[in-house]
């Protein structure tokens, strides 16, 4: 038992020093100090406890203790301890006393088995007990102050019943009452205990959630109380004493640093409690945080704290963070839970510019400089800033930090921006740091521009004449420009020059050249050349004045071509439209002599006239005249030439107002039209003098509307605004062409003019707008209509290239299409269709199908692999024509048997480009398909089909063409003559090869035995003819086989080589025929004129003139007449032309005449063999005679060229193939026949070859031969033949000759007759 004694000590004892100083200073009145004395009294018998307590209460207070003045103010009993164990006691505080706060968390309630709430709570203390003891109760005492609420739970190991969810149920109320009674009994001795209340039940067995209102109880105290709960609760509740849990939410100090968190910062979250804990778990929302590269957890048990560190936070790290600190013992678990919300803000650095263009040499910029700045949206005291500069132009500045912004002041100097670096980009990067790891940077791109110094000049200074070309050159000292534009300002009108073909730009040096090929009044004005870089424009200008001058095409000449008479004046006129007249000086030039003119107005024309008189009249000649217009600046233009044909001394058949001329003369006049504002239209009228009057041979005048279209097209293509004006012009062209279709159908000139117009406008790039494309293709469709077939045939006969030009114009148009919205619209215009694509990264195969109105189809396929090699935004365009292929010049026996397809590619490609096309056949009966494309360079640039680079694959009714290039394709097919042609080709090549070898052998043999077989005139002439026939035929065959092989292999030959080959083939084949004619005439001469004798020299002269001079004259005349007209050779074969000039007749007619003549001579020979004694001979003699005839025919047929007679059968339409084969066979082997029958069968040659080296044998043989000649009738083949030969035209009898008189005429001619066939 302990007592508390309160006392006060005297001042004398406790302040002796102050007593001694009382005399020196006044006395201070200080209160006496108070002390509390604790006295512990131990009793052996607890029954004395109450009497002792009563005694103390009634004890008088002592006033003096010892020698010290003391006052005892109170004696009270504070603490009573009762033994409760061997080494412990249970201590109680008396009323009005409480345990001190310093030991509040350490005192433990004594065990109690009673539920009586009136019993005081004792607390276990160890023995011996030395305090501290209970103290007077104050607000700071243990268990005093505001109670706290402890949220707790415990589990009942029993099944959960739904009634426990209903507070009004009996079960709920019973559970609640029993549990609260047990809880109150267990927890009543906790310091400051108030109550224990059950709040609810939750499933999971049965969880009891309850609240305990008490003072600040320690972990051990609560655990001790938990252990006692089962003692006060019925065991049927099955309370599990190990599941007591307390959740504490308001006793954790949760701090977050820094307070403003930005992306990239390192964040520290700290949880700190006043009690110890065993482990800690951190949560982000409901997800447990584990240690990783970004998350680290530092737990210090001694300091009762846990720190979560998050590195490089992002906005995803925002949200609720919880720390759960757990302390667990057997009967109690405490969970400290605290939650804070963390907000992570993006660190947004906002520059005042993203990109900015600065003109270095701008005075304003140089004066003020440029201020760059970066700001964040929050003010941070720890903000750090740095600026970095990176670029070709290194202009730096001064950094200034102001609040949450940083500024960078640039000092710009022109010297730091050289012209060659204009457009260079310098990047200024501001980097801002929060001081906690977050760092953000923003870049400002400054493009430093320099206003360029532009110089402009013209090739013509300031003036140029209409029709003349000139160029304007613009130069800039800044090469890194973005674009160049040209404008022409004339008065209030400003035109933009949009002409890709006439503007050429270069980067280094920075030059733009505007080239005008033909100046017009549209080109007059001030030329403004502008170099643009970003938004900075630099310009220069120059003024060009266009001086009027007639264009050559607008000068009418009259006449164009005419005949003139000697010493008679003829009016020559040059006229221009009266509306365009300026002050021109006009002169006429005739044969380079200049003459003055007379001016005269005719209707809408102003004409300049000169009367020309030719005085030199000694011979017929051509005279050229023209007029020259000169304007005020001395520039001139010459008209087209007037062709004058002088006809001295000839009879004039036609003479009227049109002109004069002889019969058949040609007169060409211009197309004057008084109704036309210009006074004339393009074209001319050709007259011919027939029966004393001029008849219109051809009218090539353009109609007025088409003439206007042509003039407008010429102006359009040379206009500075051609691209902008093209859509409206194409609409006008389509409309006028439709109106003038009847005129076009009857006039090849008007048709040709439309084609020329389409070709001109196709050179202008055009946007792929559907109406514009429709108008162009509709115009093409109109002029290839069936109604225009006649006009197209006329154009093709005239050797014009208009059909080829039409195809090329469509190609050019599709090539220059500029897509809109990355698309090429589908266009269909009856016989013409167009499809295309724009190349992009995701393109697949290019696969386009076309179908004509007659259900013919064609497919174009380009693989994805090929398309991926093309440049982005390039175009692939395909155009299908169902009729255009048939107006192109056709090959003989080969026909366009499908649609025509054009595929163009805007991207330039030098390498091969594979494309596959599938054509449906139009005529299934045609065979031998060829995949061809239209080669514009062939046939003197008139174009022709070519199969180079294309491979056909026939697949039923379709032909697949695989080609390695792009242009216009179709298929050519021919009637099924393939086996015949191949067989004939084999015969020709093999036969000609045999003939060439045979002829070479023949020439060698003739040279070896020449002196032995030419011992008389007839034999000499025979061998001369054979040798020349063999030589000419050898040369002709060599030329023929070379050119034929080149043609069959489709190799391209130059025009000159082809002309030369044709000439030599023609000449030497004619030589063969004429030498065969010479041989036939010699035979005929010896058959008919038996007694007549002609000298060897005369015969040689006639033979060589006939054999070489006549062929030469024919060959030269042929080439001289046809070559100037480009009609000497055929298109695809090096041989004489037939279709255009009929030059082949120069070979066919002489050949047929000679064959007919030699056939007659052969007939005469045969008749002479058979006729005289055919009835008087025995059967054996007749057989011998027939055999002799066969030998004669075998000899005469190749030598006289009779096999060429089969050629008549081959030219007959649908002739039997056998005639073609026989013709090829016999003529190809003619050289072999000449060798066998003309040389080797000759007995004299045989003997000469066998005995050439034996002189004696040769002499003997010669003697026998001479005797035989003298006594044997002519031809020495049989007696009947000799008899017949000597009895011309049925005469009987024969000449008797004597071997002793070889000089007689009869003997001589008999010998000569033998020599002709042997």
TrEMBL record:
Task: Please name the GO terms of the biological process aspect recorded for this protein, alphabetically.
Answer: adenylate cyclase-activating G protein-coupled receptor signaling pathway; cell surface receptor signaling pathway
The chain positions of domain GAIN-B read: 823-979
Q: Which GO cellular component terms, listed alphabetically, does the Swiss-Prot or TrEMBL entry include?
A: plasma membrane
Transmembrane parts of this sequence: 986-1013, 1025-1047, 1067-1089, 1101-1123, 1143-1171, 1192-1212, 1218-1241
Show where the SEA domain sits. Answer: 144-268
Residues of the region (Disordered) are: 1295-1318
Subcellular locations according to the entry? Cell membrane
SMART domains under this entry?
A: GPS, IG, IGc2
Any one GO MF term held by the record is:
G protein-coupled receptor activity
Domain Ig-like span(s) in chain numbering: 241-343, 351-447, 452-543
Determine the domain of life of the protein's source: Eukaryota
Membrane topology per record: Multi-pass membrane protein
> Where is composition skewed (Low complexity) in this entry?
1298-1311
User: What are the UniProt keywords, alphabetically?
Assistant: Cell membrane, Disulfide bond, Glycoprotein, Membrane, Signal, Transmembrane, Transmembrane helix
Q: Which InterPro entries match?
A: ADGRF3/5_N (IPR057400), Adhesion_GPCR (IPR051587), AGRL2-4_GAIN_subdom_A (IPR032471), GAIN_B (IPR057244), GAIN_dom_sf (IPR046338), GPCR_2-like_7TM (IPR017981), GPCR_2_Ig-hepta-like_rcpt (IPR008078), GPCR_2_secretin-like (IPR000832)
Pfam families, sorted = 7tm_2, ADGRF3_N, GAIN, GPS, Ig_3, SEA
Q: Which residues form the G-protein coupled receptors family 2 profile domain?
A: 984-1242
Can the keyword ATP-binding be found in this entry's annotation?
Answer: no
Concerning its family, UniProt says:
Belongs to the G-protein coupled receptor 2 family. Adhesion G-protein coupled receptor (ADGR) subfamily.
Protein name as it appears in the record: G-protein coupled receptors family 2 profile 2 domain-containing protein
Organism, scientific name = Chloebia gouldiae
């Amino acid at each position: 038992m302990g007592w508390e004694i309160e006392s006060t000590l005297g001042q004398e004892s406790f302040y002796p020093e102050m007593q001694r100083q009382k005399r020196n200073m006044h006395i201070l009145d200080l209160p006496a100090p108070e002390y509390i004395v604790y006295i512990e009294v131990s009793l052996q018998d607890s029954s004395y406890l109450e009497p002792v307590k009563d005694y103390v209460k009634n004890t008088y207070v002592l006033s003096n203790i010892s020698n010290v003045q003391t006052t005892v103010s109170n004696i009270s009993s504070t603490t009573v301890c009762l033994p409760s164990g061997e080494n412990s006691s249970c201590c109680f505080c008396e009323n009005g006393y409480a345990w001190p706060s310093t030991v509040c968390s350490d005192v433990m309630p004594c065990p109690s088995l009673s539920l009586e709430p009136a019993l005081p709570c004792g607390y276990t203390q160890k023995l011996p007990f030395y305090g501290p003891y209970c103290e007077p109760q104050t607000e700071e005492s243990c268990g005093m102050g505001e109670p706290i609420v402890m949220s707790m739970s415990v589990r009942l190991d029993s099944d959960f019943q739904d009634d426990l969810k209903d507070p009004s149920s009996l079960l709920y109320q019973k559970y609640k009452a029993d549990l609260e009674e047990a809880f109150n009994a267990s927890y009543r001795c906790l310091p400051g205990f108030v109550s224990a209340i059950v709040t609810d039940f939750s499933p999971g067995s049965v969880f009891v959630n309850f609240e305990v209102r008490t003072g600040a109880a320690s972990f051990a105290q609560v655990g001790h109380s938990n252990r006692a709960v089962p003692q006060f609760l019925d065991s049927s509740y099955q309370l599990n004493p190990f599941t007591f849990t307390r959740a504490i939410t308001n006793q954790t100090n949760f701090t977050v640093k820094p307070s403003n968190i930005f992306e990239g910062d390192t964040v520290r979250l700290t949880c700190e409690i006043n009690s110890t804990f065993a482990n800690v778990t951190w949560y982000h929302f409901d997800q447990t945080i584990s240690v990783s590269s970004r998350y680290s957890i530092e737990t210090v048990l001694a300091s009762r704290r846990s720190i979560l560190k998050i590195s490089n936070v992002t906005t995803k790290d925002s949200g609720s963070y919880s720390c759960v600190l757990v302390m667990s013992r057997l009967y109690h678990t405490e969970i400290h839970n605290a939650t804070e919300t963390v907000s992570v803000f993006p660190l947004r650095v906002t520059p005042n510019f993203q990109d900015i263009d600065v003109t270095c040499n701008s005075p304003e910029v140089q004066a003020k400089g440029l201020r760059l700045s970066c700001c964040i949206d929050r003010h941070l005291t720890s903000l750090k800033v740095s600026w970095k500069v990176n670029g070709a132009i290194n202009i730096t500045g001064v950094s200034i930090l102001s609040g949450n912004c940083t500024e960078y002041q640039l000092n710009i100097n022109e010297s730091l921006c050289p012209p060659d670096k204009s457009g260079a980009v310098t990047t200024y990067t501001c980097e801002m740091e929060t001081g906690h790891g977050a760092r953000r940077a923003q870049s400002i791109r400054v493009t430093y521009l320099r206003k360029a110094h532009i110089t402009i000049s013209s090739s013509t200074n300031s003036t140029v004449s209409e029709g003349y070309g000139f160029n304007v050159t613009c130069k800039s000292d800044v090469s890194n420009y973005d674009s160049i534009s040209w404008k022409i300002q004339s008065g209030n009108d400003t035109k933009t020059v949009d002409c890709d073909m006439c503007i050429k730009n270069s980067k280094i040096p920075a030059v733009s050249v505007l080239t005008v090929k033909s100046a017009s009044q549209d080109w007059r004005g001030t030329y403004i050349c502008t170099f643009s870089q970003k938004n900075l424009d630099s310009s220069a200008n120059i003024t060009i004045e266009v001086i009027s001058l007639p264009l050559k095409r607008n000068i009418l000449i009259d006449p164009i071509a005419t005949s003139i008479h000697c010493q008679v004046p003829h009016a020559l006129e040059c006229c221009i439209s009266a509306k365009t007249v300026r002050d021109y000086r006009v002169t006429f030039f005739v044969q380079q002599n200049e003459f003055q003119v007379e001016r005269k107005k005719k209707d809408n024309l102003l004409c300049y006239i000169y009367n020309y008189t030719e005085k030199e009249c000694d011979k017929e000649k051509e005279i050229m005249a023209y007029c020259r217009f000169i304007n005020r600046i001395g520039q001139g233009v010459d008209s087209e030439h007037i062709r004058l044909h002088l006809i001295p001394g000839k009879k004039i058949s036609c003479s009227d107002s049109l002109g004069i001329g002889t019969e058949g003369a040609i007169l060409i006049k211009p197309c004057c039209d008084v109704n036309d504002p210009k006074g004339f239209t393009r074209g001319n009228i050709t007259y011919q003098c027939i029966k004393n009057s001029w008849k219109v041979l051809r009218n090539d005048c353009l109609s007025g509307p088409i003439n206007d279209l042509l003039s407008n097209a010429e102006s359009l293509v040379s206009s500075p605004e051609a691209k902008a004006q093209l859509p409206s012009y194409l609409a006008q062209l389509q409309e006028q062409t439709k109106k003038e279709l009847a005129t076009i159908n009857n006039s090849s000139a008007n048709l040709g003019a439309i084609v020329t117009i389409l070709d001109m406008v196709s050179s202008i790039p055009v946007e792929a707008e559907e109406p514009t494309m429709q108008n162009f293709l509709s115009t093409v469709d109109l002029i290839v209509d069936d109604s225009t077939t006649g006009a197209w045939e006329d154009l093709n006969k005239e050797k014009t290239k208009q059909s080829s030009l039409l195809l090329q114009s469509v190609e050019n148009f599709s090539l220059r299409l500029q897509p809109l919205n990355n698309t090429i619209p589908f266009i269909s215009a009856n016989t013409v269709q167009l499809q295309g694509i724009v190349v992009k990264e995701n393109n697949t195969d290019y696969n386009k199908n076309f179908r004509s109105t007659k259900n013919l189809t064609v497919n174009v396929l380009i693989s994805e692999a090929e398309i991926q090699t093309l440049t982005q935004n390039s175009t692939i365009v395909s155009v299908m024509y169902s009729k255009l292929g048939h107006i192109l010049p056709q090959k003989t026996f080969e026909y366009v048997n499908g649609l025509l397809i054009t595929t163009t590619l805007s991207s330039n490609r030098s390498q091969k480009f594979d494309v596959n096309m599938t054509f449906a056949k139009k005529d299934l009966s045609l065979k031998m398909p060829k995949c061809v494309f239209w080669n514009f360079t062939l046939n003197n640039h008139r174009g022709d089909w070519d199969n180079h680079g294309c491979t056909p694959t026939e697949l039923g009714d379709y032909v697949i063409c695989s080609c390695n290039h792009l242009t216009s394709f179709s298929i050519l097919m021919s009637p099924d003559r393939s086996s015949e042609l191949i067989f004939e080709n084999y015969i020709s090549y093999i036969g000609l090869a045999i003939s060439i070898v045979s002829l070479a052998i023949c020439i060698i043999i003739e040279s070896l035995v020449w002196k032995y077989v030419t011992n008389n005139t007839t034999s000499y002439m025979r061998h001369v003819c054979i040798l020349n026939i063999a030589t000419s035929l050898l040369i002709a065959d060599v030329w023929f086989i070379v050119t034929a092989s080149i043609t069959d292999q489709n190799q391209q030959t130059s025009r000159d080589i082809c002309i030369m080959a044709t000439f030599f083939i023609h000449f030497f084949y004619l030589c063969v025929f004429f030498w065969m004619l010479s041989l036939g005439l010699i035979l005929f001469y010896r058959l008919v004129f038996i007694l007549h004798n002609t000298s060897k020299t005369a015969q040689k002269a006639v033979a060589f003139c006939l054999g070489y001079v006549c062929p030469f004259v024919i060959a030269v005349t042929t080439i001289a007449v046809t070559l100037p007209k480009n009609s000497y050779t055929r298109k695809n074969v090096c041989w004489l032309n037939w279709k255009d000039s009929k030059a082949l007749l120069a070979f066919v007619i002489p050949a047929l005449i000679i064959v007919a003549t030699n056939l007659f001579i052969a007939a005469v020979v045969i008749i002479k063999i058979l006729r005289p004694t055919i009835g008087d001979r025995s059967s054996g003699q007749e057989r011998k005679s027939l055999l002799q005839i066969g030998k004669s025919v075998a000899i005469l047929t190749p030598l006289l060229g009779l096999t060429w007679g089969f050629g008549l059968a081959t030219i007959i339409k649908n002739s039997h193939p056998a005639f073609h084969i026989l013709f090829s066979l016999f003529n190809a082997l003619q050289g072999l026949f000449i060798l066998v029958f003309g040389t080797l069968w000759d007995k004299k040659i045989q003997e000469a070859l066998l005995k050439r080296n034996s002189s004696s044998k040769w002499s003997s043989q010669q003697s026998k031969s001479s005797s035989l000649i003298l006594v044997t009738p002519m031809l020495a083949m049989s007696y009947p033949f000799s008899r017949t030969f000597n009895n011309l035209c049925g005469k009987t009898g024969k000449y008797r000759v004597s071997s002793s008189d070889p000089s007689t005429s009869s003997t001589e001619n008999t010998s000569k007759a033998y020599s002709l066939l042997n």
